[in-house]
Amino acid sequence: MPEIHWDSTLYNEQHRFVSDYGADVLQWLDAKAGENILDVGCGTGDLAAKIQESGATVSGVDASADMIELAKQNYPTIQFEQKDAAVLDYNREFDAVFSNATFHWIENQRGLLRGIFKALKHGGRLVAEFGGKGNIKTIVDAIENAAKQLGLEHRVISNFWFFPSISHYATLLESTGFEAEQVWLFDRPTKLVGEDGMLNWINQFAQHAFVNLNEEEAEAVTDLAVNILKPTHFKNGEWTADYRRLRIKASKR
Ligand code: BEZ
């Protein structure tokens, strides 16, 4: 996982669309009273709290200590813990594992899926949504294009997310032992908050792209990328990002 600094307060104010859109995937989870459910990559805890409303017992894990601290403040009745999702150490404890907008950050997908498989009880299910093949392609292209125009293309890293195809992920699930019941790939254009929505998005989510640049260089690439995107992605005072989701439901039979 790339080193990202998550500003949990800013995230809650400007990027809360992550959990707002995530509410849709909860329908696939269909949590029931009495179930024990793990939320992997729980962030500030909003979706874990929604799951809890069904009467299930929820635990949330996230790699960011800052996010976990805010989740605990927001929802004191839920158990939140800082953990690396690629090395989970649970043993047949959960009826379901849920995850929203997290898997694309994780390089070690085998470790992630093995840990989840082991965490599930026999008959348990995994429901997750994350970036799929083609996700944010126009934003990545704009960053690469801006870096090239500024002669910085060899120092910008633009391929650190994992956006798999349907067949790639179904194969990963099945080779871990899961039965892949549903694997869907679909466009979900996503509105960003405010006039600086794209700038804020790049600063929060793409900061790893610029680890080899100094501050001025990173700012120059970001500003140029935003300008490249403006004619196509900024309409009627609103920015839109070209999200494509991979939504999965898999079970441990
Ligand atoms: C996503 O949810 O698709 C996403 C978020 C931040 C960076 C990359 C992808």
TrEMBL record:
User: What would be an example GO MF term here?
Assistant: methyltransferase activity
One GO biological-process annotation of the entry reads: methylation
Residue ranges of domain Methyltransferase in the record: 37-124
Q: Which InterPro entries match?
A: Methyltransf_25 (IPR041698), SAM-dependent_MTases_sf (IPR029063)
Query: Per the record, a Pfam family?
Result: Methyltransf_25
Q: Which CDD domains match?
A: AdoMet_MTases
Keywords in alphabetical order: Methyltransferase, Transferase
Please name the PANTHER family in this protein's record.
TRANS-ACONITATE 2-METHYLTRANSFERASE (PTHR43861:SF1), TRANS-ACONITATE 2-METHYLTRANSFERASE-RELATED (PTHR43861)
Name the chain's protein.
Trans-aconitate methyltransferase
- Organism of provenance: Pedobacter xixiisoli
Q: What is the lineage of its organism?
A: Bacteria, Pseudomonadati, Bacteroidota, Sphingobacteriia, Sphingobacteriales
